[in-house]
Amino acid sequence: MALKSSSADGRTRSSIQIFIVVGLCCFFYILGAWQRSGFGKADNLAMEITKSTGDCNIIPNLNFETHHGGDAGSSDDSDSKPKTFQPCHSRFTDYTPCQDQKRAMTFPRENMIYRERHCPPQEEKLHCLIPAPQGYVTPFPWPKSRDYVPFANAPYKSLTVEKAIQNWVQYEGNVFRFPGGGTQFPQGADKYIDQLASVLPFTNGTVRTALDTGCGVASLGAYLWSRNVITMSFAPRDSHEAQVQFALERGVPAVIGVFGSVKLPYPSKAFDMAHCSRCLIPWGANDGMYLMEVDRVLRPGGYWVLSGPPINWKNNYKSWQRPKEELQEEQRKIEETAKLLCWDKKYEKGEMAIWQKRVNADSCRARQDDSRATFCKSADVDDVWYKKMEACITPYSDSGSSDEVAGGALKVFPERLYAIPPRVASGSIPGVSVETYQDYNNEWKKHVNAYKKINKLIDSGRYRNIMDMNAGLGGFAAALESPKLWVMNVVPTIAEKSTLGVIYERGLIGIYHDWCESFSTYPRTYDLIHASGVFSLYRDKCDMEDILLEMDRILRPEGAVIFRDEVDVLVKVRKMVGGMKWDTKMVDHEDGPLVPEKILVAVKQYWVGNSTSAQ
């Protein structure tokens, strides 16, 4: 029997109300949320945030209506009426600005260039609000969301037909059901992962971060979650309509992306495991360039899994309906490149093979004299944003002995979340010592505790997909760590320090991005967005309006935003979002009203588009 999501005419109309009751000692901040929900009924999520005198003692100066309405003498007229942003036309419901299909077709198909990021110039950017589709509902909570997605949220049935025999997704009533199958694991991801677990150390926390290339609807990442492995899944926006959108609706980390002509937006030595299951990436092409990019992002000692063609081609070429000579040549090139990279093959059975990257350069001395081994010359291996991918090998970091892990060994997860990361211990991050790193973490624990007092929904399971727009060293995500949620840690490309490698060393995931451009995701894919210092960082770099409209695009209806910034910045932000169908409240810093940094809490109202909307 199919689970039923709510119908538009069978529910109490959604609304978000934010209000404050000031008592003699305490402040009461109540977030009342009658939300459209995948449960099939409206959920009264009214939460009392500072309920007792005890809470007041913890943060005695927390004021939910800060005294700063605007700076004296400021050119910003805080009392003037904000600009009102109109809804975009309903044809933009699933608009992805930097992966627009029409624009993509104007670029070369060679090396998948047309599927890469191609963002609109300033004069072509939309200055309207992307609408939700008619009937949109809040997704089911995790773990139910892993298996069920409301049809109205991503109304695309093509994969239910195209991938029917592979068990990707099925349409049942008014929901999609995801049985956990995939092209290479039609019997389910759990059985497939059991096969992986016979080789890979999932159970002891050694393998924590994974990269799934050409992920489909991200069933591998969905089921690895129960093994305490967090997976960065990516796939292009192509003929497999809405695959990444389905992944995010399910509550699984994913971005729109492709192996093409530019480097992946991840740091070196990031992932404990990389995976391809019939991902259609030509691994042997371009002198092994794509495998060399996998090698760059794999940690020393990390694993690469390839399942499907051309593995074990002798037994499978007939069922794959491909010439055996072609498959033989594909596998030869893969094996040749893997040997050049000093990967050791650990497993080959059926249609699956697993290689392991060696731990340091000392264990791979032979390739130093191999004329085919070209080493990358770049001084900064993490400088990857829009940089061309190269057919070169990323050198190992120095190691002290032949059995020492290059760059430093990691603790197993969850210990590594708060252990000193090797990049910090080695002094690789300018200005970040062991002591300042520990102080940083303590500060973010305090910040997150304050957030939880402002909005108790943070710990309730209501927010599954969370984004930190300026993640620093990952303090926000580490303090939030929970099986109920995950955080996409974004390190801006213009940040003073390149810290994304530290985030991965902590056992978290993230991505490089420039907030002057749109993010590589579908609309309505995040439940909660955290923006600490974002607008101060991008002051004079690009238009605040563009960044806020992008935040609105990727935020779900009734999703929340927490801004942390200087008060003069937040006054401008608050005024602008006043015309974006957001409700806001300004909050003092947890250390009191004299601190110039403030917190702005916002909730996006529920609304859907129609065919008569503007633009």
Strand and helix layout:
Elements: E1 15-22, E2 27-35, E3 43-44, E4 47-48, H1 53-58, H2 101-104, H3 144-147, E5 148-150, H4 158-162, E6 170-172, E7 175-177, H5 189-197, E8 209-213, H6 219-224, E9 230-235, H7 243-249, E10 254-256, E11 271-277, H8 289-297, E12 298-307, H9 313-320, H10 324-340, E13 343-349, E14 352-357, H11 422-425, H12 434-454, E15 465-468, H13 475-480, E16 486-492, H14 500-505, E17 510-513, E18 526-532, H15 534-537, H16 544-554, E19 555-566, H17 567-577, E20 582-588, E21 597-604
Helix pairs in contact: 9-10
Largest sheet: 7 strands, mixed
Under CATH, the homologous superfamily of the largest domain reads Vaccinia Virus protein VP39
- How many DSSP helices? 17
The percent range for strand residues is 15-25%
Helix content: 10-25%
| Strands side by side in the biggest sheet | 10-9-8-11-12-14-13
Q: The CATH topology of the largest domain, please?
A: Rossmann fold
For the record, the CATH architecture of the largest domain stands as 3-Layer(aba) Sandwich
State the end-to-end distance. 41 Å
How many structural domains can be distinguished in the coordinates? 2
**Briefly, what CATH class of the largest domain?**
Alpha Beta
Number of strands: 21
Rg calc: 25 Å
Derived from helix and strand composition plus strand pairing, the structural class reads alpha/beta
Query: Regions with pLDDT < 50 over 5+ consecutive residues?
Result: 1-77
Q: Characterize the overall form.
A: globular
**Averaged pLDDT:** 86
Subcellular location: Endomembrane system; Golgi apparatus membrane; Membrane
GO cellular component, one term: cytoplasm
EC number: 2.1.1.-
Family: Belongs to the methyltransferase superfamily.
